[in-house]
Amino acid sequence: MRDFTKSIFSFSWATSLFGLQQTLNLLRPQQAAKAFDDVREVTTAQLGELLKQTFRAGDKLQREFVDLTLGFLARQTFDPNVGSDVVHPPTAVTQPSIGVVERQSAAAASQSTPVTPYDSHPASSGWGPMPLSGETGATSQGQAAETQSIAEPDISPDYPFRSHYIDVLGSRMHYLDEGAGETILLLHGNPTWSYLWRNVIPHLRQQARCIAPDLIGYGRSDKPNIEYRWFDHVKYLEEFIAKMGLKNITLVLHDQGSGLGFHYAMRHQNNVRAIAFFEAIVRPYAWDEFSTPEFREIFRKFRTGGVGGEGWKLIVEQNFFIEQLLPQAAGRPLTEKEMNYYREPFKDEQSRVPIWRFPRETPIGGEPTDVWAAVSEYSQRLQQSSLPKLMLYATPGALLTKENVDWCEQKIRNLQSVYLGPGSHFLQESCPHRIGEEVARWYRGLSSKEN
Length: 451
What we know:
Layout: H1 2-25, H2 29-45, H3 49-77, E1 102-104, E2 164-168, E3 171-178, E4 183-187, H4 201-204, E5 209-213, H5 230-244, E6 249-255, H6 256-267, E7 272-280, H7 293-302, H8 310-317, H9 320-328, H10 336-343, H11 353-361, H12 369-384, E8 389-396, H13 402-411, E9 415-423, H14 432-450
Parallel strand pairs: 4-5, 4-6, 6-7, 7-8, 8-9
Antiparallel strand pairs: 1-9, 2-3, 3-5
């Protein structure tokens, strides 16, 4: 009786404090969502199998209903003129709480698919407004291009990480090294660097060792006198992984970093645990399948001419990628502090050569032939690989447009698909917390399945 009495008083005290903590959590949507998810996971774990199945069926219907309802609200706030030649001033638009839609690929499961979130958003360029002919209208140094906000709150501009360096093929590569345990390797694309992951890493470093390198020629890595072709990046990345001694890697991939990561993973599947990706190069493209019509034209310009040509003038001389394209595709107005971080590695024309080279190395219309062949090969292997995969996508997107999301869900084996809500291309700047939380949740699930 004494033990029972002590236990019940202890239980009451603990639950009172727990209730207070959850009440405080409700004041911040991100914390509240995590608290609800944690309690839900504990609760459902105690259910019998029949009740679990009942819950899953009901939860699926509920999430689809929420997604349809809030998708309508998102349609009211998402600017239908994005993609026109008009540059809109920043407006205070509240990010709707879009319900997450998870789907298993057709290659992995034969279950019915929920209503597609693309029905809830207008067909838009995914890159924001940009000049398509004549003068580029590049923004003046010190001022980011204006864009509407479709971003979640509490996105920090700070980069509070310790820098690390390692010698790779005679040059120093810079990287972040946060947390401990198994390795999560985060690979950025063009024209960004590890700064792009600053708000994602805090969600992951409690579970794993997060390594975020700056590709050679990017960020705080050295800029050796090389061509910066796609296979140069392959060589430096593979040597970086080998010298760091990284094993059993989980890859988190974006933009051009996705192609490099997929290429590595499909040739070293015994050293890769799983792959998460978004706004990624999942296959080579015919020109009419690449991105959106608005961006296709500007991308053709990027590939026009050699040194001194039209693409060179846009990217190297006028710094178009940093000053215009990046802020327009961020999903929100970037602050001056954020823009200065992105400008930091590319302050002179010579430093922008890697940014100029990457669009010319993207496999479109059969060119360049060696990259086209390599991406074709990894795309085929990716479809058949049994490695666990997570695809995050937003609407309207830029690389993972509706057609490419559908292709991934139909073709790629063992794929889990998660809808993030409205978004463009640099999703780490508009929904980094959702990205971090979804990757963390998926990563925890990998461990439970392996056990």
